[in-house]
Specification:
- It is built from no helices and eleven strands.
- It is mainly β and about 120 residues long.
- Strands 2, 4, 5, 6, 9, 10 and 11 form a seven-stranded mixed beta sheet that branches. It has a four-stranded antiparallel beta sheet with strand order 1-3-8-7, with no helix packed on it.
């Protein structure tokens, strides 16, 4: 059974930092593209960052470039999202997702497996 479980969310003040973790199991971690997405109230789910094993690169949304960093520990099947200089507009539920085809796009519909999500709240 494929599982993705997020942790590390919470509430911080503007300018603060959080590190999200995603524990993956039930699939060959190295073959999947992994993406971080977020969804704010009343808004569509949007891609934050994604890693593609096919292209060997990590892409970021313009809104988080320079502030967020995605990394992984393949030996532990863990993916991380380091978020710095958080702003109120970063407030959302954050999800990690797996794409079996490995392309790693920012389109949520391309992903096959999803975690339940975790709340990140940034106060001003």
């Amino acid at each position: 059974e494929v599982q993705l479980v997020e942790s590390g969310g919470g509430e911080v003040q503007a300018g603060g930092s959080l590190r999200l973790s995603c524990a993956a199991s039930g699939f060959t971690f190295d073959d999947y593209a992994i993406g971080w997405f977020r969804q704010a109230p009343g808004k569509e789910r949007e891609g934050v960052s994604c890693f593609s094993p096919i292209f060997g690169r990590t892409d970021y949304a313009d809104s988080v470039k320079g502030r967020f960093t995605m990394s992984s520990d393949n030996a532990k099947n863990m993916v991380y999202l380091e978020m710095n200089n958080l702003q109120p507009e970063d407030t959302a539920i954050y999800y990690c997702a797996g794409d079996a085809e490995g392309f790693g796009t920012s389109d949520p519909s391309e992903y096959d497996y999803w975690g339940r999500g975790i709340q990140v709240t940034v106060s001003s």
